[in-house]
Specification:
Blueprint (H helix, E strand, L loop, with lengths): L6 H4 L2 E6 L7 H17 L5 E5 L6 E5 L5 E5 L5 H14 L6
Parallel strand pairs: 1-2
Antiparallel strand pairs: 1-3, 3-4
Helix pairs in contact: 2-3
Subcellular location: Mitochondrion inner membrane
Family: Belongs to the complex I NDUFA2 subunit family.
Keywords: Electron transport, Membrane, Mitochondrion, Mitochondrion inner membrane, Respiratory chain, Transport
Length: about 100
């Protein structure tokens, strides 16, 4: 999982949106509980924004250089699939570097 240390090199910001009570956000809540500390420890200067809003569909957004953003809907994904989606967004960020 060396890619976790690359987040701050490829991303400018990471946002995770989810509902605090919705069953569709349960995997996203589990991902945050299990991975936030490790991600923040390896990327202390990267803004990792956790946003809770009742009734919202779980989403993961990455902001790259020059304001480019990519997002993924997380509904129906398990914790491992969410981790893979974040890895893909992180590795994809290298393509936006000049």
């Amino acid at each position: 999982m060396a890619w976790r240390g690359q987040l701050s090199r490829n991303l400018k910001e990471l946002r995770i949106l989810f509902s605090p009570n919705s069953p569709s956000s349960s995997s996203t809540r589990g991902f945050i509980e299990n991975n936030y500390k490790d991600l923040k420890t390896k990327n202390p200067k990267l803004p990792i924004l956790i946003r809770e809003a009742t009734g919202i569909e779980p989403q993961l957004w990455a902001r790259y250089d020059m304001g480019v953003e990519r997002g993924i809907h997380l509904e129906g994904l398990n914790v491992e699939q969410i981790s893979k989606a974040l890895e893909d967004l992180t590795k994809g960020g290298g393509a936006f570097k000049g």
